[in-house]
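User: For my dataset I need records formatted as: sequence, then structure tokens, nothing else. Please produce one.
Assistant:
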Amino acid sequence: MGGHAGGDTASTIAIRSLAHIEQDNLREDVASVANMMDVSVMAAHDAIVGKAKRERRLSGMGTTVTAVALVAGYWILAHIGDSRAYLLRDGKLMQMTSDHSYVQHLIDTGHITEAEARNHPQRNVVMRVLGDFDIDPHPDIAIRKAHPADRWLLCSDGLCGVLENSTIEEVMSTVSDQEECAQRLVSMALKAGSTDNVTAVIADATLALDADAFDLPHQTPLVGGAAGASLEPIADIVNKPIASAPALRYGKQSPAQRAAALTQDNENETVSPRVAQPSHMREDSEELSNPDTGEIPVVQKQDGRYSADPNDPEVADAIHHEKAERRKASRKRRHWTRLSTIAATILVLMALSAAAFGAYNWSQSKYYLGQSDGVVTIYQGVPTDIFGWKLSHEVERTTISTASLPQDWIDQLNSGISADSLDEARSHARLISREAQKLESSQSGSSSGSSSSASPSASSSATSGASASASSSASQSASASASESGSQS
């Protein structure tokens, strides 16, 4: 419950909380294992609540739990929620759990019948479940003596909600292979129109045999439902290879023909089952499996059996084929990555080029006055450059020499005097020329005034009979002129 992410997380937490029971040294103590299952389910509830509090996106997640363990000749059943456990014994199917749901409460109190419950609008409302809810999380615990040939079905309400008990009994009685039995039940439920998660586990009680004394095929546990999305952590927990269920198969001659007939559509549907190895096995056989996930493809052999042995030639061929496909896909991704990089680079360069072109066009609509070789010059552009690329060029030179200009005017010319047009730049140049001429005239007038005052001063000295001893040539000439004038007098 809680969407794909929430439901997957909640169910995975529950699986991890219970998986350790297989590894503990309490397999002969029925009461201890029963108590451990109860405590483990409660621990799963606490872990789910804590996870939901830490990650608000998982708020409202939850899961049902139905688990059965065989301990010292006894079945121990732990149950909470509306998933179910069925026991087939001596050809008779018995429902071993009671749904913790609202419609089951209505049935128990006599308000509705079981037939009415199937279509009740609130049939999916649970009253006890593990999750981020304020409801009772304690599971039901039951212990029952095990008999040889007992067969269990643990299933979600997506299966038992659409299949009749008689149909389930027929399939469980007539299909001896556990894997095929589970696959057929799931397939029938899906084809019958189930809109909910459909999960089925088949477990048989058999007399123990010495595997080393017989040529027995290796059996790999199968994982389905929400847990199938994350096989590697479960493989590490149970310390053995874990497989996802192979493609669904069915038989048309089943007595439950009315349900099986619905499987005639999409007969070519295929699912690629996988096997995930524990971490230590992945390290030892990295070359024989997917190094990223440790998965080995499950191959259906010609005799109909499935194999996930990496040393099997057919499995080895499948591994080799998958690696080749991954390399091909990797090359294709790199190719598209390179093309994308090149395309992005081209787009960036085009954008930069367009920006540079626009900036250059704008700059060429401007003019400014500067200087070149000591002469006031008109430039087209702006007085700057980009990465060494000058944004201006000389248009025409004037006859104005910068030597005749004040230093502050020269500083302005070095920075550039802006103009919006060539005519405006020429107008500025004419203004500078006129001001320069005025300045030059002013300086010339000042020099003339200085010479006139010198002559009268020298003449006065001569008249008084004083000798002119000035060292400058101007003073000497004046003295001579004055002396000559004095002689004439």
